[in-house]
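Quick question, first post here. What does this chain look like in 3D?
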Amino acid sequence: MSGCSSDDPAQAEARQRDYCTKLGSWQDAAHAMPTDEADADADADAGDGQGVRSPELDYTELAGHALIEASKRLDRAGLEHGGSDILDDTVNAVGGDIEAEGRAVAYCDSSGFETLVGSAG
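> Answer (accepted):
Ran it through. Tokens below.
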């Protein structure tokens, strides 16, 4: 039963904007992280050798959780486009799947919020 999909257009737009804003924030954080594993390992081993987590890693993780929660709200409201599975794509994107990130970005593009996200490539 998908009674939630009958939300008014303003509420649907607000949910889509929230999702796309969170996607953009997560992208900024995730793509600002060191891409070289040696750099990431060096950051983790800095200091006393106890594997101190960097603030960027914490923010990326928090941004990822917020993004997944926003995708769950879209999913529950039935606000997906063209048979896409925004929740699965989002979870996979946060897990590092660049193709899933591209589908999430395409969702925002088709929703009219392309300026809130970066490209996925």
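The radius of gyration is 16 Å.
The longest helix spans residues 9-32.
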